[in-house]
Amino acid sequence: MIKLGVIGMGGIAYWMHVPQANATGKFYIKAAMDVTPESILAKQRDIPDYYTDYRKMLADPEIDAVIITSPHHVHEEHCVAAFEAGKHVLIEKPISRNLKEARNIMAAAERSGKIGMIGFCQRFDARYSHIKNILAKGELGELLSARIDHYQNFDPAPESWWRSKEKVGGGAVIGSGVHRLDLLRWYFGEPVSVYAKAVGMPERLEAEACAHAVIEFDSGVIANFSINWAVYGHHYYEGFSVAGKKGSIIVENGVTVSNAEMQSGEVKPVEIPPCQGMYDHFADCIINNKQPITTLEEGYRSLRLVRAIYRSIQTGKVVDPQEVEF
Ligand SMILES: NC(=O)c1ccc[n+]([C@@H]2O[C@H](COP(=O)([O-])OP(=O)(O)OC[C@H]3O[C@@H](n4cnc5c(N)ncnc54)[C@H](O)[C@@H]3O)[C@@H](O)[C@H]2O)c1
């Protein structure tokens, strides 16, 4: 069993990381750390050791690996400390708020020689890896255009760090959009130009609530990215489509429609599996000393696309993501 510690025992740690890591049967969650003196969430998940100082938790020699599920403004501090303590690290997205912090994390990982992985769970979602396989086999022919969205009615509690532009490193684009931008990079290569616009919702967030971007990839694909945290009165929605010269794929709320399915009149709903696959992969990387699919470098490049979108919003100009360094 790989012994794990959690830094930031909040919503996503409680609902996703701890149960999914446990479900693999390969991890034992030994400790959790948070800033509150007592954690009901850690107790409810039967985690035996609880700390309010991450340094003390990292000093436990029995802990092999750490999950970082703290707010974005402390990702750099927590990740660097975890690598320096000789732990393997799974970092929730985004790797950090900006590229300078990300480079510090990557340098610490390099010095430690430990596994560093980004929690881009969508790459371990069976629907999206199925699409990756179809694209890799060239089944859709030359790819032309794509669309990806994320819609959510996001209204964080008044005291939540999620409302702070400084703590989050932005708004909806870095908060949820980074997952979708990472998928676009996974499928279509590196972005070569970005043009974006955004709008705010100051009663809920200091930074942007909605943004749209047109992104051109080195594969020639053009994509339309749309993020919206202000979908009042509607449920969570994520869509994706890609069009090639031999066929297309359209994903709407978990239903995949391909040319073949349309011709046969049969449309199969696909269940979204939980992120257990991400933890199976993390365990495999630790045990067999392999680099993960979602390396820190991948986290850096997807964050660079986020930062390029922010620069385009700020300047009103088309931006080359490769030239963005902060
Ligand atoms: N994969 C996904 O779909 C998904 C969804 C939600 C959040 N996330 C990511 O997970 C991370 C956490 O988000 P969340 O929604 O669980 O937030 P949250 O606010 O629910 O939980 C964060 C926890 O960190 C604690 N914390 C605050 N400052 C701390 C510090 N200095 N040291 C240690 N702990 C500290 C808070 O007390 C809280 O319990 C973020 O990186 C976020 O982007 C991912």
Task: Describe, in short, the structure shown.
This protein is α/β, with parallel strands linked by helices. It is 37% helix and 24% strand.
Structure description:
The chain has 326 residues and is an alpha/beta fold. It folds into 2 domains: 135 residues, NAD(P)-binding Rossmann-like Domain (Rossmann fold); 173 residues, Dihydrodipicolinate Reductase, domain 2 (2-Layer Sandwich). 37% of the residues lie in helices and 24% in strands. The protein is built from 11 helices and 13 strands. Strands 8-9-10-7-11-12-13 form a 7-stranded mixed beta sheet. A 6-stranded parallel beta sheet has the order 3-2-1-4-5-6, with helices on both faces. Helix 5 runs antiparallel to helix 11. The longest helix has 20 residues. The radius of gyration is 20 Å and the shape is globular. About 2% of the residues have low confidence. Bound molecules: nicotinamide-adenine-dinucleotide.
| Stretches with pLDDT under 50, minimum 5 residues | 269-274
C-alpha geometry? globular
The fourth-level CATH homologous superfamily of the largest domain is Dihydrodipicolinate Reductase, domain 2
Number of contiguous helices: 11
| N- and C-termini, Cα separation | 39 Å
Number of domains: 2
Helix content: 25-40%
Please provide the count of β strands: 13
Mean pLDDT, as a whole number?
Answer: 92
**Can you tell me the CATH architecture of the largest domain?**
2-Layer Sandwich
Would you list the SSEs in sequence order as H and E? EHEHEHEHEHEHEHHEEEEEEHHH
In what order do the strands lie side by side in the largest sheet? 8-9-10-7-11-12-13
> Describe the biggest sheet?
7 strands, mixed
Q: Please name the CATH topology of the largest domain.
A: Dihydrodipicolinate Reductase, domain 2
User: How would you classify the helix and strand content by structural class?
Assistant: alpha/beta
| Radius of gyration of CA atoms, rounded to a whole number | 20 Å
> Which CATH class of the largest domain?
Alpha Beta
